[in-house]
Amino acid sequence: MTGEPKAREPGIREARARDAKTGETVETKGFYSVQELAKSPGYPSRERMMKGPVAVIECTQEIPCNPCEAACPHGAITVGLPITRCPELDGEECTGCGLCIAACPGLAVFVVDMCFAPGRTAVSFPYEYLPLAARGDKVTACDRSGHAVCEAEVLKVLCPPRNDHTAVVTVVVPTAFAQEVRGIVRPGGGIVWPRGDAGRSGGDVRG
Ligand code: SF4
Ligand code: SF4
Asked: What are the angstrom distances between the C-alpha of 125 and each of 10, 48, 59, 157, 188?
C-alpha cells in the first residue's frame, strides 16, 4: 500500500441512508443499492462476515439460472425449484473457497474476507478484461457502479482452465470499504487513485 487512502464520501452508512431516502433500485440506476442487497438471501449477515471469508451473492432478479448452486462443493448455495428462485446462501456452510465466483455467468458472486488483517479486507471478484493485474500491483478499487473508491493492492489472480477465461482477482482494501469494493478500474485504462470524485471515470469496470 502506498499510504492510507482517504474515505470517499458518502460512506457506507451514508449510502444506506441515501438509498432508503431515494428508493432507487437496480432498475433505476443500473446497479444494486446496499438496501436491496441487505434484503437478499444471498447476502451474508454482518456477523458471518466478521468470522472470515464468505461468499457474497448479489443476484436478486429471479432469472432462470443456477450454476452457482452446482459449483459449490459444500452445498452452501441453494436455488432449487423453480430455477428462477434467487440463490440463497448458507453462511455457516460456506468456507469462502471462491469456486462459485467464476461459475456465475452474471459476474454476481464475490468473496469478502473481513478477517484478512487488522483493518484490511480481502475482496475477490470475477474479472474479464485484459491485461490482467498481477500480484503486488497497486490498483484503484471501484464500487458496483464502477466509480473509484480507494487504492488497493492485488493479492492474487487466479485463472485456471476450469474458469473458462474468467479470472478471479483478489485485492486488499481498508475494511471501511468492504461492502463497497466489488472490482478494480482496469489497469492502464482508467483513472489513477487519488483523483477525487470530480475526476470519476472508472465506469468501464464492473467487478
Ligand atoms: S465460496 Fe465456496 S463454499 Fe462458499 S458458496 Fe462459494 S463455492 Fe460454496
Ligand atoms: S450463477 Fe450467478 S446469475 Fe446465476 S443464479 Fe447464481 S448468482 Fe445468480
From this structure: 23, 19, 14, 10, 19
